Structure formats: C-alpha cells, structure tokens
Amino acid sequence: MLALKQHWFVYIVRCVDNSLYTGITTDLVRRLREHNSPCKGAKYTRNRQPVTLAYFEKADSRSSAGKREYRLRKMRAEKKRALIRSADLL
User: Fold this and answer.
1) 71 CB contacts (<8 Å, ≥6 apart)?
2) How many CB atoms lie within 10 A of CB 11?
3) CA 27, CA 76: separation in Å to the nearest integer?
4) Torsions phi, psi for 35 (to 5 deg)
5) Core-most of 51, 64, 71, 82, by most CB within 10 Å?
6) pTM (2 d.p.)
7) Domain coordinates of the chain in residue numbers?
8) Can you give the C-alpha Rg of the chain in angstroms?
9) Per-10-residue mean pLDDT, the chain, length 90
10) How far apart are CA 79 and CA 66, in angstroms?
C-alpha cells in the first residue's frame, strides 16, 4: 500500500488589529477556521478575530515547517509584511 506524503504549511495570518501570527499546520482551511472560532484557535488570535490568511508556504516535513516557522517568528514585523506583499496570494 502506498502511503500518501503529508505536506505541512507554514502560514501567517493577519489579525483584526493588523498584528501578525505565524504557525504551522497540515490543513490551512481547518486551521484558519479554528483561529476564527471562540475556543479552538491560538490564545493570541482569540481576542483578535477575525483573522485572515496573509501568507503561506509548503514544507515537506513537520521538522522543516517548524524550523521555517521559527525563522519567520524571529523576523521583524516590517520584514514579514514585505514577505507578504512579495507573495501576493490573492
């Protein structure tokens, strides 16, 4: 039986107060829905709803997604905003 390779995503959401939150997931749609729910999202985003997906990139493993998330979290907000602008998701 062939095992399907699971992809991970590193993402940045923009909160209603214009702050940014970075995370990882295997399901972007589900995770965004959780961030906008009153009890399942990250503690940081619960009081900053609604949140919208601002940026994402695919990673091959949880490990590589976690490492990239760490690097993104260390970036200054303006650098993150420049990354978001350069990706032009929509």
Assistant:
1) none
2) 21
3) 26
4) -60, -30
5) 51
6) 0.88
7) 8-87
8) 13
9) 76 96 96 92 90 96 96 96 82
10) 19
Instruction: For domain 8-87, give the fold.
Output: GIY-YIG endonuclease (3.40.1440)
Q: How far is CA 51 from the centre of its chain?
A: 11
The string of pLDDT tens digits covering residues 38-49 is 888 888 999 999
The partner residues of 11 in beta bridges, in order of sequence, read 23, 56
State how far the Cα of 17 lies from the Cα of 23, in Å rounded to an integer: 18
Q: Which residues of 45-65 are buried (b: 16+ CB within 10 A; e: fewer)?
A: beebeebebbbbeebeeeeeb
Q: Which amino acid is at 21?
A: Y
State CA 7 to chain mean position distance.
14
The backbone region for 88, taken as left when phi is positive above 0, alpha when psi lies in -120 to 50, beta otherwise, is left
Give the largest Cα separation in the chain, rounded: 47
Query: In this structure, are residues 46 and 36 in contact, taking their beta carbons and an 8 Å threshold?
Result: no
